Amino acid sequence: MQSVDLNSVKSFRCPSNYFFTSVGKKLVMGISGLVWAGFVMGHMAGNMLMFISPGAYNSYGHALTSGGLIYVVETVLLTALSIHVFFAVWLTVDNRRARGSQGYALSQKGSKGASIASRTMAAQGSLILAFIIFHLITFKFGPVYETTVNGVQMRDLHRLMVEVFQQPGYFAWYVFCLVLLGVHLRHGISSIFQSLGVLNSNNQATFQKVGIVYAIVVSLGFLSQPISVFLSR
Ligand code: HEM
């Protein structure tokens, strides 16, 4: 069998071929995932205005969507999501092929030590993708109620949000997906540091904690929104 010179692999610099390696694909997934990780933190923080007043929440939504910036944000998000999903499918197919050629015994051994969360990243990602599609249908393309805040006519997204989260089915689906998002973020953020090659035995625990704290803040922050609406029915 042909042997591989590891030194030549390490010093390999051709970017097009790099993305055909497992490490390259993971790096692309990590960077595109980071775009969404940043977005969800910002989206969660902005949504917290619901605890100030319906007017503050609606004005914030109106300010975001009435300028041209929203098209830039949407283009960046869609591009990052498409790249993330494309590379996720590619990696999953590669991994399945590799497992198939190495045999069941090796695959069992290989997966030893990997947590359920890390082994089910593809399934979590598929559910989160479904969540995003339903979420856009529910809110962005959902019923348009109108309201006036400080003399400005705008969409009443606060009323829509309250109507949605008061329904037990929607409430349960959001709670489930927001917990899942936390699990996905926690593992994804820790993995990006690994793909970037910055992890070593000294800082590994710290970077893992960064992933955990980030995931908890995003997940619990979002969760507080449907929970507060549902409990105040
Ligand atoms: C309690 C949780 C959430 C609430 C209350 C919420 C609320 C909303 C609302 C009201 C909009 C419509 C904004 C508009 O059209 O003006 C929106 C848009 C959006 N949400 Fe959420 N959201 C939540 C969680 C999430 C999560 C977890 C994600 C992603 C994983 C997400 C991704 C998006 C995206 C991509 C848009 C479209 C943004 C755009 O048009 O550029 N949301 N959300």
Notes on the structure:
Helix content is 76%, strand content 3%. The chain is mainly alpha-helical. The N and C termini lie far apart (68 Å). Helix 3 (22-47) packs across helix 10 and helix 3 runs parallel beside helix 11 (204-231). It has a two-stranded antiparallel ribbon. The protein has a single domain, classed as 3 helical TM bundles of succinate and fumarate reductases (Up-down Bundle). The chain is built from eleven helices and two strands; from the N terminus they run H-H-H-H-H-H-H-H-E-E-H-H-H. It has helices spanning 6-10, 15-18, 22-47, 54-66, 69-102, 104-110, 116-119, 121-140, 157-165, 168-195, 204-231, and strands at residues 146-149, 152-155. Protoporphyrin IX containing FE binds next to helix 3, helix 4, helix 5, helix 8 and helix 9.
Q: Measure the end-to-end span.
A: 68 Å
The chain-level structural class is mainly alpha
Second-tier CATH architecture: Up-down Bundle
Q: What is the C-alpha radius of gyration, as a whole number of Å?
A: 21 Å
List the helices and strands and how they pair.
Blueprint: H1 6-10, H2 15-18, H3 22-47, H4 54-66, H5 69-102, H6 104-110, H7 116-119, H8 121-140, E1 146-149, E2 152-155, H9 157-165, H10 168-195, H11 204-231
Helix pairs in contact: 3-5, 3-10, 3-11, 8-10, 10-11
Bound molecules: protoporphyrin IX containing FE.
Protoporphyrin IX containing FE (HEM) binds at residues 40, 43, 47, 61, 65, 70, 73-74, 77, 132, 135-136, 139-140, 157, 161, 174, 181, 222, 225-226.
